[in-house]
Design brief:
Elements (H helix, E strand, L loop, with lengths): L6 H54 L7 E4 L2 E3 L14 E3 L2 E11 L8 E11 L1 E2 L19 E9 L19 H9 L3 E2 L3 H5 L3 H12 L15 H4 L3 E2 L10 E4 L1 E10 L4 E3 L18 E2 L2 E2 L6 E4 L27 E8 L10 E8 L3
Parallel strand pairs: 6-9, 7-8
Antiparallel strand pairs: 1-4, 1-15, 2-3, 4-5, 5-7, 7-10, 11-12, 11-16, 13-14, 16-17
Amino acid sequence: MRKAFTLIELVVALGILALILSFAGMIFRVSIESQRMAMANAEILQKLRTITEQLDSDLRGLRKDGEVLVFWRAMRKPNYTPPTRNHPSAFERSDTISFFANGDFYSYNLNPPVRGNTARICYTLASLSGGPGMEPNRPAAQKPQKRILARTQHILLPPPNSIDPNDPLGMQKFSDSQWQDWNSVQQSDGISLRGWQLMSDAVKADVISVIGDIMVGSDTGLGGSEKNKVAGGVQLDRTRPDSLPALLCEGVGQFEVQGWNDAQHRWIPEIDPDGDGVLTDDSDFILDGNDLHPSLIPGIRYPDGPYVLRTFSAGRTNADFRDIPGLGRAMKFTFTLYDSRGLIPNGRTFTHIVYLDN
């Protein structure tokens, strides 16, 4: 008599096979997901290296005898419920820093190329072009994972033989679009560092307002300026190839700049230094009642002042670099980075410290 499998044996065998296939499928899915997450993390780490290596290279040549501009923006995250209203996680930063540095700088996609050993460098989250006559799409209105960290450089070139000392770059007659192109697209300036320092107050007010995308008021000692309404900040337009050299890294949700202060033994500025959830007692930021002021942006203009942190009176001049809250012996940069596929929905936050004492 020929032997055969019974029905029960077949059912048991099929059940075991199904279980094995189920486990195999689960292992396959986990492997694929792990690979995707590994690729997302690798992408974020590559972005981290790109940003930190560029910061290290630029700040290595920082000219402390040159002008340094820093502006700090703290934005409340929309549709976010923190543990307490003023918990640090409730905010994200969109800061700007501009400084002069020595190095080997060269232009991108210019014919003839431009090269020099001193440049003004600026890091900031970029605005996106809103079209002719329209307000630009500023970082606060963008989704964090879509924000772009921009880096611009203006190589200093020998000035022409005949210049107006009150307006060395001919800016007083600039239109909004010319201001925008100067700040976002232009890669060189026919001016020396000394010429920049001697720029007239009227022009410097416009320059600062455009670089920082801030309102420069009478409290700065420079008079008023409203250039930032349309032309302020670095603006990227993907339809214009000449604006793309400013694109340093995509998917940068926040960019925070702080300086180590020896006197207070902490990084400045902070929203709530003592962490008690109350801003009125110790916040470095300018307040409107019990909250951060929505339009007054604190900042630094070194070495000539003023300094507009809430706890540091405006108008102080010629202070030592290490004594300025927000500058100091070291600077800390904090950024939240996102992968391009959105596999890490909240991104990853990193800090990078650059020591300036040398």
